[in-house]
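Appendix B, example 12.
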Amino acid sequence: MTPLIDSTRGTAWPWPPILRASVGWHVAAIGAGVLVPGALPWAVGAIVLNHALITGAGLTPRSSLLGPNVTRLPEAAAARREVAITIDDGPEPDVTPQVLDLLDAHGQRATFFCIAERVRAQPALAREIVARGHSIQNHTTQHRHNFSFLGPRGFATEIAQAQDMLADVIGHKPTCFRAPAGLRNPFLEPVLHRLGLRLVSWTRRGFDTREGDAAKVLARLTRGLQARDILLLHDGNAAHTSAGRPVLLDVLPPLLDRLRAEGLQSVTLPQGLQGLHT
């Protein structure tokens, strides 16, 4: 199968094995359905099974079946005792400044996967994130709930527009991308490749958009915590505690204390991913 050539980067997009196999599976199933008497129901079933497998891969945020997907920092980060705290869906003016203060107080750095329209609405806050040593990366233009159903053109519009909007505010284009809820389909990776973006998911998440109990969120994030982990939290769309506080603000202090106790340093993704080839 001929790789797709990326004219902007001069490199070929390598078809993932599952997609190569999918094409062959379709050809074989259609051929059998046409040429073999009585095989049509089996051929249709085979195609349905294939589509179910690909759909399942897209609905599994940490899967790499549809293309490269960073779920941990590279092995070199282990020796440096590095982890990556990633914070999604902001910037949120009532939450993000407090997050920045907590990170500063503990000497830790984070990566903010920002929604571009929110950055455009809060440019000063976005610039403060970067000025205080953190990183802003691409989390789409609008955070559309139907993102995983988009085709190549829809992905290109949503992601490329976010690249431009973020660059206009912070002065450079992101290098990492995270899909809303981590959900996607086979059309996403060629678009990311063309735009020079790396898909990043996570090692562990706290489910803090729906869980308001800080202890439970913290437990999910720290169970088995080790160097190279990528942790997922939210400053936007965060659940609230029984006291009405965004749960992130109650999770961060003990999480940052735990990192210090374990001798772990949170770095930005551009720092942590240096030298990683995907």
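The chain has eleven helices and ten strands. The domain at 76-272 is CATH 3.20.20.370 (TIM Barrel).
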